[in-house]
C-alpha cells in the first residue's frame, strides 16, 4: 500500500469507525435520513423556498454584507470594563472565525477618544523634527509612493490583561479577542523618512494621531527603518474608520498601541518623548514597585478558538481542535496542544501560509468520548522562545500587570461538551 | 558604499530629484506649505473637527463598515448586459483595491437565479451515486470534518468576454472585474468522497446548487480528489449569501461557474452529465462552427489596475504602475510590463506572497512626463505559459467566443493623464 492510500484508510477509519458521519448516524438529519434509507439516490424530501423562488439580483447590495443568519457574529464589548465607550474596547469573535485573515468588519476596536471620522481631502501627514526638510503629505501624495503588502497580526498590549489574576472571562472573544490579522498595503516608513532626510542625531520617532486623544507614542528609529509601514489599506480596501482611516502606522510584531491610527504627524528626535501612553499607561508595575517600560514586542502566544467557552463541543467522537498562534519576533515554528492541562503535549498541524509576524492557524485531531479535557496550546517561535505558563509569568512579573500576558490559556471541556475558562496548577 | 545605502540613494533621487514630493513641491497642500515655510516644526495651521470632538465609541457598529467617504468603492453592474438582474453580474472595483486579498463585500457577483437566502439549519449536502453509501450532511456535520485554508483567485469564464470584438468597456472594473481572491476555509472534497466511499467506476462528479437555477456542472474525479474544497468560509467568516452561503465548491484555478454556490448535492457518476452550463453555455463557438467544451482551466492573465480608465494618472513625475496577475495552472512566475503597446517589455516586481492559483500583486516604477503611453502587462506562469495577445487568441478562436479571453489588455494614457481602453496592433 502506498503512503497516500494508507493515509486515506487511516483517515477513513477516523471518520467512519469512530464518528459515524454517514447518513445512518446523523441525529440531526433524521427526516432526511429516512428518505435516504428507502433509496440512496433520492433527492431531499422537500424543495426549500430558496430553490422555488428567484432571489435578489445583483446590485441589491453594492457593498456586500453577511447573511442575516450570522447576526450573532459581531464584535462585542464589556461595558463595565471602561468608564466611557469612547475610550474602550470591542473584541474580535475569534471563536466564530477560521483561517488567518480577519474580515475587516470584525477587527477589534480600541479607541482612546472615539472613532475619528476623517475627511481624507482635509487630512495631512506632517514629517518634521531632525530632518533635512519638513514634509506635509496629502493622501494623494502618499498614494504616489512605492508600496508593499504584508499580512501581519495586530495585538493590543492589554489582550488577556484581565487573566493576570486568574481565569476571568468566559470566552476567547473576551480573553484573546484583541488580536486580528489582515493584509496591509502601505508605504515603507523608511522611504518617507528618507524623503525628508534624517539628521545624523536622529534616533526616535514620535507618531501622533488626529483623533480626539491625539494618541502619541515614541518609536525607535531602527524599527522605523526596518519593517514599519504607513498604511492606507487593509485587505485590499481603504482602512476602516475604526482602524485609522485614512492612514495608520503599522509596527509589525509590536504592541497595538504603537500602531498609531489616524496618523497626522511623525516627528524625528534624539530621545523618546515620555508621553502618557509609555509612562502612566502601557507599562507593567512589578512586585518591587518598579515598572517595565518600552515593552514593545508582543511575545509568542496562542489560543484554542474551538472548542472554547463560546464554541462548545457539539458531539462525541472525532474532534478537531483549532486555534491561532503568533509571535512578534518572527514566524511561529511549532504549536503544541495538550489535552490534560500541560502534562502531555503533541504537535499540532499548522495549515496555510506561515508568514513573518502573522497569525498561523493550527489544528489537532482527537477522539472525544465525554471525558474531561483541560485544553491548552503553546506556541514556539523561530527564535526558540516557548510560550510560558501564566504561573511562570506571575513568578517574574507579579499580578499588578495589565499588559503583555502571553501565558498559556486553559479551557476545561466538561462531559456535557460545555467549555469553561479555568486555571490549572 | 554598501548595497543598501546605494539603493537608498537611488531611491531618494527617484523621489526627490524627479518627483518633488517635498513640501515645497506639493501643489495640493499650499496652505499647509506656507505654515511650514515659517517654522518647520509648526503643527498644521488648523485643528480639524475630528480632533476637537470625541468620535463614536465602541459598539456603534458591531459589524464594521467602510468610511462614508468611500461610498464610491462598490460593485457595479451594467444593466444593458443581461435581461434580468437575477441572472446577471456585478463587478469588483479592481481599480480601487491593492494587495491580493479582496474584501468580502467587494467580491464580484454572478447569479443565474438570484441570491439564495439559505437558512443554514435547513440546508443539507447530499452525496450519492457511485458511492458505497449515501451521505446527507448538515452544516454542523461539515464543520466537524478536518479543514484547510487556501488563498485562491476565482474568475468567471466570461471575464473580459466583451473584449473579444475589440475594446469595449472603459474601466478594469468592467473589463476584468469578474475576478476576486480570498482565503477559503473548507473540507477537502477528497475527504467527503472517501467518507461516502467511491465505486471503482467513479469518474465524474455532478455538483448542484440549491438556488432557483439549480446550477449544475460536471467535474472530473481527478480534480475533485486533487485540490477541491467544500468551503464554508471566506476571509475567516462564513461565506456571504451572494458567494454561496452556507457552502460552496472551491475548484482552484478552474472557471468560476464550476465553483457551485449554495451547494446541495454531489452525485458521483462515470461520465459527464452534459448539462446546460457545459453545452449551450460555457462553451466557445469556433470559426469553423465547432465548439470548445470542458474548457475548465483559467489560463494565465493579468491586468494593470492603476493607472486605468477609472484611475487616471494624478500628476507628472514618479509613477507606480500596479496590477494583478493569476494563473489557473499554478503560480505566477513573472509579470512583464510594457509602456509602448508591447514593443518593449520590462519585468515588474511581484510583491507579497506568491501562492498556488492565487492572485499576485505587481508593481513597476517609471517616470512620466506627459507622453502618451500604451500600458500592457503579461503574466508568465510556472509552466512557462505566456499570456497571449488578443490578436493571437482571435487567430485561433475567432470572435464568436464569450469565455476564456485572457488576452493582453491595453490602456492608453493621454497627455492629460486620462486613460482609455484601446486596441493595439
Report on the architecture of this protein.
- The structure is a homodimer of 425-residue chains.
- Chain A has 425 residues and is of the alpha+beta class.
- Chain A has two domains: 217 residues, Sulfite Oxidase, Chain A, domain 2 (Alpha-Beta Complex), CATH 3.90.420; 122 residues, Immunoglobulin-like (Sandwich).
- The first copy, chain A, is 14% helix and 28% strand.
- Chain A is built from eight helices and 24 strands.
- The first copy, chain A, has a five-stranded mixed sheet with strand order 5-4-13-8-9. In chain A, strands 6, 7, 10, 11 and 12 form a five-stranded antiparallel sheet that branches. In chain A, strands 19-18-22-23-24 form a five-stranded antiparallel sheet, with no helix packed on it.
- In chain A, a hairpin with a 6-residue loop joins strand 8 and strand 9.
- The longest helix of chain A has 15 residues.
- The radius of gyration of chain A is 24 Å and the shape is globular.
- The two termini of chain A are 46 Å apart.
How would you sum up this structure in a few lines?
Chain A has helices at residues 3-17, 30-38, 49-52, 139-144, 172-176, 189-196, 221-226, 390-397; strands at 76-77, 89-91, 109-110, 125-129, 135-137, 148-155, 179-188, 204-209, 216-220, 229-234, 237-238, 248-250, 263-269, 284-285, 291-292, 301-306, 317-326, 332-338, 346-347, 349-351, 360-368, 373-381, 410-413, 419-422.
List the topology elements.
The structure is a homodimer of 425-residue chains.
Chain A: H1 3-17, H2 30-38, H3 49-52, E1 76-77, E2 89-91, E3 109-110, E4 125-129, E5 135-137, H4 139-144, E6 148-155, H5 172-176, E7 179-188, H6 189-196, E8 204-209, E9 216-220, H7 221-226, E10 229-234, E11 237-238, E12 248-250, E13 263-269, E14 284-285, E15 291-292, E16 301-306, E17 317-326, E18 332-338, E19 346-347, E20 349-351, E21 360-368, E22 373-381, H8 390-397, E23 410-413, E24 419-422
Parallel strand pairs in A: 4-13
Antiparallel strand pairs in A: 1-2, 2-3, 4-5, 6-7, 7-10, 8-9, 8-13, 10-11, 10-12, 14-15, 16-17, 17-21, 18-19, 18-22, 20-21, 22-23, 23-24
Amino acid at each position: 500500500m502506498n503512503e497516500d492510500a494508507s493515509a486515506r484508510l487511516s483517515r477513513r477509519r477516523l471518520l467512519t469507525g469512530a464518528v459515524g458521519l454517514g447518513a445512518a448516524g446523523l441525529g440531526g438529519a433524521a427526516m432526511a435520513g429516512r428518505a435516504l434509507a428507502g433509496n440512496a439516490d433520492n433527492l431531499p424530501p422537500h424543495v426549500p423556498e430558496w430553490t422555488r423562488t428567484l432571489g435578489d439580483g445583483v446590485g441589491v447590495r453594492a457593498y456586500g454584507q453577511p447573511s442575516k443568519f450570522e447576526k450573532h457574529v459581531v464584535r462585542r464589548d464589556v461595558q463595565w470594563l471602561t468608564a466611557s465607550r469612547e475610550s474602550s474596547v470591542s473584541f474580535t469573535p475569534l471563536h466564530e472565525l477560521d483561517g488567518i485573515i480577519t474580515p475587516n468588519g470584525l477587527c477589534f476596536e480600541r479607541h482612546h477618544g472615539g472613532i475619528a471620522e476623517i475627511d481624507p481631502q482635509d487630512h495631512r501627514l506632517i514629517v518634521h523634527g531632525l530632518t533635512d526638510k519638513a514634509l506635509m503629505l496629502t493622501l494623494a501624495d502618499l498614494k504616489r509612493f512605492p508600496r508593499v503588502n504584508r499580512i501581519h497580526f495586530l495585538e493590543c498590549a492589554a489582550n488577556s490583561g484581565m487573566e493576570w489574576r486568574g481565569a476571568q472571562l468566559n470566552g476567547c472573544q473576551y480573553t484573546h479577542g484583541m488580536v486580528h490579522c489582515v493584509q496591509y498595503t502601505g508605504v515603507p516608513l523608511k522611504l518617507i523618512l528618507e524623503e525628508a532626510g534624517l539628521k545624523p542625531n536622529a534616533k526616535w520617532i514620535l507618531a501622533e494621531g488626529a483623533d480626539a486623544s491625539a494618541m502619541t507614542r515614541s518609536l525607535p528609529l531602527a524599527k522605523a527603518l526596518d519593517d514599519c509601514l504607513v498604511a492606507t489599506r487593509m485587505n485590499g480596501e481603504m482602512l476602516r474608520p475604526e482602524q485609522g482611516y485614512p492612514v495608520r502606522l503599522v509596527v509589525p510584531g509590536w504592541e497595538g498601541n504603537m500602531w498609531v491610527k489616524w496618523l497626522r504627524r511623525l516627528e524625528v528626535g534624539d530621545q523618546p518623548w515620555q508621553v502618557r501612553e509609555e509612562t502612566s499607561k502601557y507599562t507593567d508595575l512589578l512586585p518591587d514597585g518598579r515598572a517595565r517600560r518600552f515593552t514593545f514586542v508582543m511575545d509568542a502566544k496562542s489560543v484554542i478558538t474551538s472548542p472554547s467557552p463560546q464554541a462548545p463541543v457539539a458531539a462525541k467522537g472525532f474532534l478537531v481542535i483549532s486555534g491561532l498562534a503568533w509571535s512578534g519576533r518572527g514566524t511561529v515554528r511549532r504549536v503544541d496542544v495538550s489535552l490534560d492541562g500541560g502534562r502531555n503535549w503533541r504537535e499540532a498541524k499548522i495549515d496555510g501560509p506561515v508568514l513573518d509576524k502573522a497569525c498561523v492557524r493550527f489544528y489537532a485531531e482527537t477522539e472525544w468520548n465525554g471525558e474531561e479535557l483541560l485544553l491548552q496550546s503553546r506556541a514556539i517561535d523561530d527564535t526558540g522562545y516557548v510560550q510560558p505558563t501564566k504561573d511562570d509569568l506571575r513568578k517574574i512579573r507579579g499580578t499588578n500587570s495589565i499588559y503583555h500576558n502571553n501565558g498559556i490559556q486553559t479551557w476545561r471541556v466538561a462531559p456535557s461538551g460545555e467549555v469553561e475558562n479555568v486555571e490549572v496548577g
